[in-house]
Amino acid sequence: MKHELTCIVCPRGCLIQLVKDEEHYICTGNQCKRGEVYAIQEVTEPRRMFTTTVQIVGSKLSRCPVVSSSAIRKEDIFKIRDILDGLVIHAPIQVNDIIVENILGTGIHIIASRSIKKDA
């Protein structure tokens, strides 16, 4: 099976062709090794950074932005969204505070991407 991808690892945006033979992937079009790694992962197990907001109480703001500590499998995005949908956190929150540790047993944390003070 042949796949054509545009690499997003660096600004070059190489057009990569990826073909799987009996046992291995053959990658062409990439100008660096990172492109090959990206293409194989994108075809075998695509991952994305996850960002959203969660409800926060005790602050003038009603939502706190959060992000995954590393890229998560695309197939887990909606499961994680559902977990975070009903979550309520309490101010104060500091940037990089862990909001949910080891989400779905992946070893990936959901962390605050903004500090939010408690309302006086």
Structure description:
This protein is an alpha+beta fold. The chain folds into two domains: about 1-45, no CATH class; about 50-110, Roll (CPE0013-like fold). The protein is about 20% helix and about 35% strand. It is built from two helices and ten strands. It has a five-stranded mixed β-sheet. A hairpin with a 5-residue loop joins strand 5 (about 50-55) and strand 6 (about 65-70). The model has no long low-confidence stretch (mean pLDDT about 95).
Which properties best describe this structure?
single chain; 120 residues; CPE0013-like fold; 5-stranded mixed beta sheet; 2 helices
SSE layout and pairing:
Layout: E1 2-6, E2 15-20, E3 25-28, H1 33-44, E4 47-48, E5 51-57, E6 63-68, E7 72-73, H2 77-85, E8 88-90, E9 98-100, E10 110-112
**Beta content:** 25-35%
Strand order of the largest sheet: 8-5-6-10-9
Average per-residue pLDDT, rounded, comes to 95
Provide the structure class: alpha+beta
The beta-strand count equals: 10
Rough shape?
Answer: elongated
CATH level 4 superfamily of the largest domain: CPE0013-like
Distance N to C terminus:
60 Å
CATH topology group of the largest domain: CPE0013-like fold
State the CATH class of the largest domain.
Alpha Beta
